[in-house]
Amino acid sequence: MSGASGTPYAAAVLRALLAAGESVDLVVSRASRLTLLDETGIAFRDAHYRDDLREWLTRGADGKPDTFDVDLDGVRHWSAGDLAAGPSSGSYRAKGMLIVPASTACVAGVALGLSKDLLQRAASVTLKERRPLVVAVRETPLDGVVLRHLVALDDAGARVVPASPAFYAGATHLQDLVDFVAGRVLDAVGVEHRLYRRWRGDLGGARTD
Ligand SMILES: Cc1cc2nc3c(=O)[nH]c(=O)nc-3n(C[C@H](O)[C@H](O)[C@H](O)COP(=O)(O)O)c2cc1C
């Protein structure tokens, strides 16, 4: 997670990965702690990450507690400043990496190979190992600098999946819009989920069946 707005997208992706039986190496950038605090009121603590994750992930996008069940056994947390952490090396076992949400600063850092923290280093490792990297960028409008960095990431093999909800899947609640973006992120790496209703080609059908 990097420091763009959109922590509900990260929560939905995390829940779906765990529900799909995937194990997750979680890295929360310093700036992401600010957005988490701003968007949920949770001050994320490395030393108590399980407690904080449980409080966060069991809530809905509307902040309502106990909306979801979550089993955190599959989560391993790494401090963003820990450049000696497992995901810093290509020899560490990983299927791929999802940056959700992705700040434009993180996009720039990965596009330029800066590795300023564990998040950016792990992303560069993911690219060099030719593993799937998904970048759920969240910013608007986009200027030419960011667009060029996004093209560089695409050229390097990353999938750019903007945090850009669609309305054709019958959304009625905030959570539906969040789940659409989370589902498209997971689609990009072929993880099964039931987060949104797929388009089936029947115009208007999404509202009538
Ligand atoms: C409340 C808040 C919301 C932010 N929202 C965004 C955003 O939506 N997109 C973005 O690119 N940056 C956003 N930023 C700015 C980033 O947090 C900032 O560029 C930071 O340096 C990103 O660092 P990181 O990529 O290491 O997490 C936001 C910052 C704050 C405090």
From TrEMBL:
Instruction: Write out the entry's keywords from A to Z.
Output: Flavoprotein, FMN, Prenyltransferase, Transferase
**Source organism superkingdom:** Bacteria
In terms of Gene3D superfamilies, this protein maps to: Flavin prenyltransferase-like
* Location of the Flavoprotein domain: 1-188
The protein's matches in InterPro entries, at most eight in alphabetical order, are given as:
Flavin_trans-like (IPR036551), Flavoprotein (IPR003382), UbiX-like (IPR004507)
State the NCBIfam families in the record. Answer: ubiX_pad
Q: What is the name attached to this protein's record? A: UbiX family flavin prenyltransferase
